[in-house]
Every structure is written in C-alpha cells, then in structure tokens.
Write a structure and sequence with these properties.
With 98 residues, the chain is of the alpha+beta class. 47% of the residues lie in helices and 12% in strands. The protein has helices at residues 21-26, 28-38, 57-70, 73-87; strands spanning 17-20, 42-45, 51-54.
Length: 98
C-alpha cells in the first residue's frame, strides 16, 4: 500500500495532505482512498495561492448542513448564547445513554 506523506508546508494548511497535481495524477486512487476511507482532506497545489481541495461527500454534506443551519439568525443567536453561557461556567455534563 502506498504511504502518502502528510506535509506541513505551511501554517495555513496544517491539517491537510498537500500534494502536487503531477503526484496526484500518479497516485489518484491512493489519494481518493485517503479521503473516502480516512476522512483526510487533500490540497492539490497548482502554484502560488492556487489549488483544489478534495473532501469526502460526508464532509461536504456536513459543511453544507452547518452553513444552512447558521444562515438562520435564530440558530446563530442560540449557538452564540450557548457558547457565552458555557464560557461563563454555566455548562453542565450529561451522561449519554448507550
């Protein structure tokens, strides 16, 4: 199995696998497997400040759901009020069933 190095070439993208287009073309299946099986994010570098980011469909759907939820002012207010209450020490622990 191909070992794909995780390169931290920039503080801007510390949690991504970063590769070149030519390497991605050579090892397309291995990179796609990393995205779909290991939930990795791949940045295909195409030059200075240019590139393509690849994420799984599950990750994409989660991002779109979050975007939709936070586009509602009521949901935004609830989230920020809850975080402020937690930051003030008003949070609590609850045991999960299962």
């Amino acid at each position: 199995m191909l070992e794909i190095p995780i390169l931290d070439i920039s503080k801007r993208y510390p949690l991504m696998i970063i590769t070149t287009l030519s390497d991605f073309k050579k090892e397309t299946k291995a990179y796609i497997d990393k995205v779909t099986e290991d939930f990795e994010t791949i940045l295909i570098n195409r030059g200075k400040d240019k590139g393509v980011v690849m994420i799984s469909i599950d990750e994409y759907n989660a991002l779109m759901t979050t975007t939709a939820e936070l586009s509602e002012p009521l949901n935004q207010r609830r989230l920020f009020e809850s975080k402020a209450a937690f930051d003030r020490g008003e949070g609590f622990e609850k045991e999960l069933i299962g």
